[in-house]
Write a sequence for this structure.
């Protein structure tokens, strides 16, 4: 009797290639079809589009060795039956297999916290070579919704080649890759970079599909370099599943790993990074109190024992700047504060009784509840208008069993 | 069907490791350097266009920035297009963010509730110090009525002289040249995601043109009608409203404003709609005149009959009635467009404002007639007023703001209208340096000066300007709105030679002018790699009309799969309809009967009694690889009717995979391989549609909607063509190889006993192993965690029990266990157990 040191898993067998002869016939037909359909004039200018799929595949092949498959066993948070072989996009949230990305040669694996939404008791990681390993969960970043795993007894694992953040351009190809459909091969989606510096500067935005099938997987450029790790994000909420509602709607996010040393080190130490809370309620400056040349927001309530209360913020204070950045209005305050995390020291410039004052607040865990901007509500019930980043009716982790 | 297999022996495992490695990091896909260079050149061209045009994209907010929409600047003096419903939500003024990172004030100029369009004007940033001056001189135009109080200087507003300030602006394009398959980019601020006012850019293709989306409140509504709209699959979400749709030359071809949001909440489902630039151009003059613009009607309705467009009702008092059009007459041409269908006419007429002169050609008693008529206004249900100025913060309710009361179609804000009239004259003076009409030099100072709205002179869109001196002598002048390239520019077209004091609408300017023509010459259609595939698929795809039940859609799509009227579609409630009809691409409708169904493919073969010479050849599998382009051609949300071409959505092949969902996955009826794609196809009406490769050949049929009951997410997929071919031929094996056969004989005994106290959802830990049992022989121990049995993953005890129950005595299986930090694979041969 033998025990192998690592079980080898082969997901689906490959579909067999075309029989010979059949291939030739296809090729001939293809040639005929091409001649039929492509206007000669267009051939040159559309060459880039026609060749793009080959570039997509070559790019995916380059990142593939750095991708891992994550399986989870046992679930503390449950609600519904686990479905064998269920495709991830349809199975209960957080039910594997899902994707992770190697971020260090000695076995650090970064993935989306969404994949552990059911709090599994055992996590395994299967490398591209097919070997399966038990993983330890290290720290997590609640602002980026990433969790760091570690597998032992490995070395020289292939880490992805990074695309330099400042060289990523809006409009360039972006390909999301993920193992999540119960197949050995990753599923891919192509789109472009839609925006940079989103979700408080933590993410790039893409119109490639990002969904439960590839959360934790890479978003790569046309040469297979890593742009970021796909995660569900929403400006309105840091709940783990917020943002999932945009799964195929052309709004997706990936967290770049450039300048990630600081936060990645914290995760390696097992720490949890949380959004920062001041503990105040703020509102616009009442028109009656508006003075020319004065920007800012009015503190309407300071929660007892909160970070703001400890630092001495008081009701009626007018916040005009944060760490030197001007606070024009509530939206500006929200966008500035979203960039900090719990534990940060933040210098508030306030006006109290017409006197300027500086107060340093050390932020605590948990985000402030500042209203997210709504999409302008049309008076009309139809067209494009409205509700904004509604924190979603996300896939409910505790949905009743069926 | 196993999801994965465990090997038994080290040798075999090493071998497969090697193969697995080789296949997973496939080296078989290579792209030559020069080929990659072509891909990157196309990418670089797109990036360059985005860099060039995105500075003109506006993030529009209300005064308090609690809400947001989008817009696009079209002139250096800050005029920007947006949606009516955006300003209706934001008010008469507000803040706007530009990609330069700054915030600007904007004021409302004019709006078009019928076509969901508005023009606002961004104001230059204040020069340093002006903000402290309590608003004095705060507006650059003394005649401005906006009286914007500017309580605070805006960021970055220092040191700029408003008079010299030039906004970046976008060029206006030609929407009439768009074809399905053309690349288009939507820009704007969906979900107010931008924190630095830089727009979100989404790429897609034109899915359809000349789409009609009825107005608010149904068919008879006159508000927010999207006629002649451009349908796109570029992601358009709430917040994109009012933003530009760019072609790949960086010209604005439409204003995004709407999506098919009926089904899945307010997110993009692959169908967005933009107001065509063709329509926008016609309304700009009325909007600059500060009007609540009104749309025009011929006061005649038409129906399709025997391939002709026939008048079925006409108001004899209307201009066209007075010119002799009668019921039964055949409509031939309107405003230079040959009318194909009644819906085509309905689409076309929405692009014209009231009072617009239109040439109509029709056939009356076999004689062709021609007349120029002015369109009459379409009434709004309630007096459409400008939004209230300045909403106050909620905690301090302000007295209700007075609404402007001028009726629609008239000048709403005379002071701003005058400012806009002066703008037109000044622009004319600048542009026609040296060759100016003397009468216009002093015009800006005349006591009465107003823009009367749009007109049409010598085939060109024009502003009509009225001016009057202090003696009551009136005079009109016409200025072009666009130059010959279609760009926003002013030139004088015509000045009244005689003075008249009456401000009445003059007789038709054009009369029987034969030289009426579009000045904007339609540009060559941009080459697209997808035109051919889309056109080919559209010619072989049909609309299916049945009856819906409850939320189940009564319509679908279908594929023509033989020259003899064989139609393939997806299973759905419409099939049960006794009046199931197939609408061929030429618009003809035919009753269909069911030939055969496939439970396995959830497909149905139909037959219609008519020849269908253009059909998909199921004989050849296009063998698409992951990453290859695919186009879905189908009729989601019934956006196309009659002979209108169906929608095209572009995506790539994400993966061909086995769903392998077993019977207990109740929300997935489908069993077998599917093509997963990244285009959104899970919409009502799409099932049965075509998925084709870039060569136009059939890759698969869009399957019925699969929605997860737990997560609400849907799957975008197609049933592969090779399986469909077998079904059509009648050779498809309906029942795939038996899955897990229930053990018939004695139950299998492994000797494993699982720790059960954690509940069925706990991981399957071994509590103990029975001595002398197969498990003991295999070396299993207490506290081993069972991860997999014979290729199936074991996430918890329930799954363990299901798999154990299916084991057959004597048949060796592999069990994958976790022992401490190791993962091990163990062969085990179950013995016969006791019943």
């Amino acid at each position: 009797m033998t025990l192998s040191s690592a079980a080898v898993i082969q997901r689906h067998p490959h579909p067999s290639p075309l029989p010979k002869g059949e291939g030739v016939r296809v090729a001939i037909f293809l040639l005929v079809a091409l001649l039929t359909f492509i206007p000669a004039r267009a051939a040159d200018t559309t060459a880039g589009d026609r060749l793009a799929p080959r570039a997509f595949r070559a790019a995916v092949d380059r990142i593939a060795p750095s991708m891992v498959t994550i399986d989870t066993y046992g679930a503390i948070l449950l609600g519904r039956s686990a479905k064998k072989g269920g495709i991830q996009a349809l199975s209960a949230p957080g039910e594997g297999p899902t994707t992770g990305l190697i971020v260090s040669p000695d076995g650090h694996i970064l993935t989306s916290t969404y994949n552990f939404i059911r709090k599994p008791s055992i996590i395994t990681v299967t490398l591209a070579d097919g070997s399966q390993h038990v993983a330890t969960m290290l720290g997590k970043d609640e602002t980026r919704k990433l969790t760091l795993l570690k597998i032992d007894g490995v070395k020289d694992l292939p880490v992805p080649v990074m695309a330099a953040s400042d060289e990523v351009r809006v409009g360039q190809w972006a390909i999301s890759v993920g193992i999540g459909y119960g197949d050995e091969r990753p599923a891919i989606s192509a789109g472009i970079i839609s925006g940079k510096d989103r979700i408080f500067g933590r993410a790039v935005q893409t119109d490639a599909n990002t969904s439960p099938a590839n959360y934790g997987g890479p978003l790569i450029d046309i040469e297979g370099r890593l742009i970021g790790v796909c995660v569900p994000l929403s400006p309105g909420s840091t709940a783990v599943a917020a943002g999932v509602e945009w799964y195929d709607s052309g709004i997706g996010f990936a967290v770049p790993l450039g300048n990630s040393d600081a936060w990645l080190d914290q995760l390696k130490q097992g720490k949890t990074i949380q959004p920062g809370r001041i503990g105040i309620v703020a509102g616009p400056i009442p028109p009656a109190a508006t003075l020319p040349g004065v920007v800012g927001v009015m503190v309407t309530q300071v929660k007892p024992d909160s970070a703001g209360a400890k630092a001495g913020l008081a009701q009626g204070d007018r916040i005009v700047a944060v760490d030197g950045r001007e606070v024009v209005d509530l939206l500006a305050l929200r966008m500035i504060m979203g960039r900090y995390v719990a534990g940060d020291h933040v210098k508030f410039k306030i006006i109290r009784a017409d006197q300027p004052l500086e107060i340093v607040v050390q932020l605590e865990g948990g985000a402030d509840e500042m209203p997210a901007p709504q999409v302008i509500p049309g008076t009309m019930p139809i067209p494009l208008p409205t509700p904004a980043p509604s924190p979603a009716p996300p896939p409910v982790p505790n949905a009743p069993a069926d | 069907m196993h999801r994965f297999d465990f090997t038994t022996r080290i040798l075999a495992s090493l071998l497969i490791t090697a193969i697995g490695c080789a296949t997973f990091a496939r080296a078989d896909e290579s792209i030559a350097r020069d080929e990659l260079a072509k891909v990157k050149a196309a990418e670089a061209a797109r990036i360059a266009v985005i860099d060039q045009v995105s500075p003109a994209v506006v993030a529009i907010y209300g005064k308090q920035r609690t809400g947001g929409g989008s817009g696009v600047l079209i002139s250096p003096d800050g005029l920007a297009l947006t949606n009516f419903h955006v300003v209706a939500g934001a008010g008469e003024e507000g803040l706007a963010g530009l990609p330069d990172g700054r915030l600007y004030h904007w004021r409302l100029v004019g709006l078009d509730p019928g076509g969901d369009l508005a023009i606002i004007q961004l104001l230059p940033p204040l020069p340093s110090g002006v903000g402290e001056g309590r608003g004095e001189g705060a507006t650059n135009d003394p005649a401005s009525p906006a009286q914007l109080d500017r309580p605070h200087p805006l960021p970055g507003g220092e040191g700029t002289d408003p008079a010299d300030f030039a906004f970046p602006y976008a060029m206006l394009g030609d929407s009439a040249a768009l074809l399905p398959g053309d690349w288009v980019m939507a820009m704007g601020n969906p979900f107010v995601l931008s924190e630095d006012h830089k727009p979100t850019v989404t790429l897609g293709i034109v899915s359809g043109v000349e789409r009609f989306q009825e107005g608010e409140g149904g068919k008879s509504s006159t508000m927010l009608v999207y006629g002649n709209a451009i349908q796109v699959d570029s992601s358009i979400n709430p917040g994109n409203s009012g933003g530009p749709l760019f072609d790949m030359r960086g010209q604005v071809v439409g204003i995004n404003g709407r999506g098919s949001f009926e089904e899945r909440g307010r997110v993009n489902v692959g169908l967005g709609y933009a107001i065509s630039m063709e329509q926008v151009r016609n309304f700009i003059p009325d909007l600059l005149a500060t009007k609540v613009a009104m749309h025009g009607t011929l006061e005649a309705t038409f129906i399709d009959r025997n391939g002709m467009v026939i008048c079925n009702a006409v108001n004899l008092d209307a201009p066209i009635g007075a010119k002799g059009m009668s019921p039964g007459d055949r409509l031939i041409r309107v405003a230079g467009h040959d009318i194909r269908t009644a819906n085509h006419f309905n689409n076309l007429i929405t692009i014209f404002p009231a009072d617009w002169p239109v040439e109509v050609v029709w056939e009356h008693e076999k004689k062709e007639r021609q007349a120029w008529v002015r369109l009459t206004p379409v009434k709004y249900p309630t007096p459409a007023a400008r939004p209230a100025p300045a909403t106050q913060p909620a905690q301090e309710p302000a007295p209700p703001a007075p609404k402007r009361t001028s009726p629609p179609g008239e000048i709403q804000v005379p002071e701003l209208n005058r400012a806009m009239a002066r703008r037109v004259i000044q622009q004319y003076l600048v542009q026609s340096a040296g060759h100016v009409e003397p009468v216009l030099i002093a015009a800006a100072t005349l006591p009465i000066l107003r823009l009367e709205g749009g007109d049409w002179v010598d085939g060109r869109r024009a502003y009509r300007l009225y001016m009057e001196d202090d003696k009551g002598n009136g005079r009109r002048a016409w200025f072009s709105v666009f130059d010959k390239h279609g760009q926003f520019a002013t030139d004088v077209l015509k000045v009244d030679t005689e003075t008249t004091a009456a401000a009445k609408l003059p007789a038709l300017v054009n009369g029987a002018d034969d030289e009426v023509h579009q000045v904007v010459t339609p540009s060559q259609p941009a080459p697209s790699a997808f035109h051919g595939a889309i056109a080919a698929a559209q010619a072989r795809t049909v609309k299916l009309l049945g009856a819906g039940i409850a939320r189940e859609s009564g319509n679908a799509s279908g594929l023509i799969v033989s020259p003899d009227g064989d139609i393939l579609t997806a299973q759905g409630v419409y099939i049960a309809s006794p009046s199931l009809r197939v609408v061929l691409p030429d618009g003809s409708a035919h009753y269909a009967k069911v030939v055969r169904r496939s439970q396995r493919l959830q497909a149905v073969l139909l037959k219609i009694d008519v020849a269908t010479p253009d059909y998909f050849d199921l004989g050849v599998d296009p063998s698409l690889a992951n990453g290859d382009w695919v186009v879905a051609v189908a009729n989601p949300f019934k956006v196309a009717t009659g002979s209108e071409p169906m929608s095209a959505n572009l995506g790539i092949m994400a993966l061909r995979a086995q769903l392998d969902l077993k019977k207990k996955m109740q929300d997935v009826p489908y069993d077998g391989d599917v093509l997963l794609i990244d285009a959104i196809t899970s919409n009502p009406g799409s099932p049965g549609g075509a998925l084709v490769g870039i060569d136009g050949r059939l890759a698969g049929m869009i399957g019925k909607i699969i929605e997860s009951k737990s997560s609400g997410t849907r799957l975008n997929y197609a049933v592969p063509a090779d399986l469909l071919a077998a079904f059509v031929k009648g050779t498809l094996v309906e029942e795939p190889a038996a899955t897990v056969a229930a053990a018939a004989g004695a139950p299998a005994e492994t000797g494993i006993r699982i720790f059960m106290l954690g509940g069925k959802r706990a991981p399957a830990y071994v509590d103990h192993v029975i001595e002398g049992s197969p498990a003991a022989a295999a070396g299993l121990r207490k506290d081993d965690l069972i991860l997999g049995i014979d290729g199936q993953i074991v996430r918890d005890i329930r799954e363990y029990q299901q798999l154990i129950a299916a084991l057959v005595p004597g048949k060796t299986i592999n069990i994958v266990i976790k022992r401490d930090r190791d993962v091990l694979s163990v062969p085990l041969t179950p013995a016969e157990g006791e019943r």
User: Anything to note?
Assistant: The two ends of chain A are 42 Å apart (CA to CA). The first strand of chain A starts at residue 9 and ends at 10. Chain A touches chain B through 166 residues (CB under 8 Å). Chain A has six helices and 23 strands.
